[in-house]
Amino acid sequence: MIQQSGKIALSSPTSRYDSTWQHSNTLNDITTEITTNINGEHYDFNIKGKHNIAWKEASVQYTLTSTTPFGKGQLMVSHLHRDSSMDTILSMSHNSKNLFTSEVHLKTENGELIATGNLLLKGEQMVVIEGRLKTGSQKYVLVTLSTPFESFRRLRTEMEFKGNMKSMTSSVSFELQPIVRKIRLSSTFNRIGGVSGNVRLETRYQQLPSSEITFSNRPENEKSRTDIKVEYLPGKIVSFTSRTLLDGQRLSADVSISTPFEKLQRLTAGITHDPSVKGCITKVVMEYPEGKSYYAELAVEYNENYQASVTIRLPNYHPITATLSHKGTWNQFLSGAYLQYDKNGKHQLDISFHNGKSLQGSFTMKSSLVEDTIASFSHSGNRKSINSNILLKYGKNKPIKCRYRNDKCQKE
Predict the structure, then answer these.
(1) What does the pLDDT read at residue 368?
(2) What is the pTM of this model?
(3) Rounded Cα distance, 401 and 393, in Å
C-alpha cells in the first residue's frame, strides 16, 4: 500500500487559501481526496478507482468515481478476452445520468470475423456499427452503420470475391440512406475454353435501374469469335459480333452490329486480305441498312510490272474503277492511270519515256470532261548534228509542231 498526503496554505490581507490532499493506492484500489478552503468557502474533491485483473480468465474491470462540487461522475471499463472472442464495454455517467455507453464485441464464427459495436448517447440515441470479414477462396467484407440522425440513418457497403485467376466473380454494393439508394456493381471473368465475362450495374433509381456489359471470345469452326453486348437500359441492347480467321497470311473477318436506334438497327461488314509473293487482294463488303450493300476491292500486283486497281460499288451508283500501272525502269518505262465513275465518265492518262540512242517521251490524257491532250518529244544527235521534235495537240485543233536541227527551228 502506498500513501501520500500534503497541505498548502496561502494568505494575504484580503484573502486566504488552503488545501490538503491524501492519496493512497493498493493493488486493486486507488483513492484521492482533496479538501480546499477559499475565503471560507469549502470544497471537497474525491476520486476513487477500483480495478480487477484476472489473468486466468483474461478479464479486466475498472471503475473510477469522482465526487466534486460540480456533481458526481463515474467511468466504467470492462474487457474480456477469449480464444475466439473479445468484449469491451466503456460507459460514463454524470449525476446518475448516462453520458455514453460504448460496447465492442469481436468474435470468430465459421471462419468469419465478426465485429459489432454500439454507442449509446445521451437521450437514449444509439449508434450501431457491424463489420464482417471472411478470407480464403471466398473473400467477403461487410460494414454497416446505423445512427438516429435523419440525414444519416444507415450506411451499408459490401464487397465479395470468389475464384482464382482462371475464373472469378466479384461484387460491391453501397447504400447511404436517405442520400444514396443502393448501388450494386458485379462482375464475372472466365478464361476456361476462351475468355468471357460481364459487368453489371444495378440501382434503385428509376432513370437507371440496371446496365450490363457482357463479352466473350472463343474459337468457333476454326475462327475466333468475339461477342460484346451492352444493355444500357432494360431491353435496350447494342450488340457487336466479329469472326476472324487467320490462315497463314490470309485474313478474313466479318462484323455485325445491331442497335435499338431506328437509323442504325443493323450493320454488317466483312473483309478479306489475301497476300502473296507477287501481290495482294483486299476486299471489303458492308451492308447498311439491310438490303443495301457497299463493296470495295483493292488489287496490287508487283513482279516485273506494277499494277494496282480499286473498285467501289455503291447502291444506286455506277461502279467506280481506278487503275494505276507502271512498266519498265528509269531509262525506259510506260506508266498509266485510268478512272471510270459512270458509263460516260472516263479519264485516262498515259506517260512513256525511252532513253537509248535517242531520247523519246509522250504524254496522253483522255477525258470525258475536256478535249484530248497529247504531247510528245524526241531528241537525237550530237553537237554537230541535233534533231529535236516537239508535238502538242489539244482537241481537234491543228497540232503544233516544233522541229530543231542544229541552229534552225521550224514551226508548223
Answers:
(1) 85
(2) 0.69
(3) 9
What distance in Å separates the CA atoms of residue 338 and residue 361, rounded to the nearest whole number?
19
CA–CA gap between residue 252 and residue 246 (Å, rounded)? 7
Give the cell for residue 312: 467501289
Query: What burial letters (b/e) apply to 122-146, b meaning 16+ CB within 10 Å?
Result: eeeeebbbbebeeeeeeebbbebbb
CB < 8 Å & 24+ apart, contacts of 329-334 = 331/355, 331/356, 332/356
Q: Using omega within 30 degrees of 0 as the cis cutoff, is the peptide bond preceding 275 cis?
A: no
Q: What is the per-residue pLDDT across 181-212, written as a single tens digit (0 to 9) for each?
A: 999 999 999 998 889 999 999 999 999 999 99
From the list 259, 257, 256, 255, the residue with the least C-alpha distance to 232 is: 259
Nearest to 155, CA basis, from 131, 177, 126, 172: 177
* Beta carbons within 8 Å of 40's beta carbon, 6+ residues apart: 16
DSSP assignment of 102-146 equals EEEEEEEETTEEEEEEEEEETTTEEEEEEEEEE-SSEEEEEEEEE
List pLDDT tens digits, range 15-26. 899 999 999 988
Cell numbers for 366: 483522255
Taking the C-alpha atoms of residue 60 and residue 50, their distance in angstroms, rounded to an integer, is 11
For residue range 216-236, list pLDDT tens digits in order: 999 888 889 999 999 999 999
| 3-state DSSP assignment of residue 315 | coil
- Pairing label, strands 195-203, 180-190: antiparallel
- Cα–Cα distance between 115 and 130 in angstroms, integer? 6
Cell output for 346: 472516263
- How many Cβ atoms sit within 10 Å of the Cβ of residue 4? 10
Q: Which residue pairs from 23-32 have beta carbons closer than 8 angstroms and sit at least 24 positions apart in sequence?
A: 25/1, 26/1, 26/2, 28/52
- Whole-angstrom distance, CA of residue 405 vs CA of residue 385: 7
- 3-class secondary-structure state, position 262: helix
HSE on the CB side for 266, CA within 13 Å?
7
Rounded distance, CA 274 to CA 87, Å? 75
Query: Grid coordinates in use for 227?
Result: 461477342
CA–CA distance, 263 with 389 (Å, rounded to integer): 63
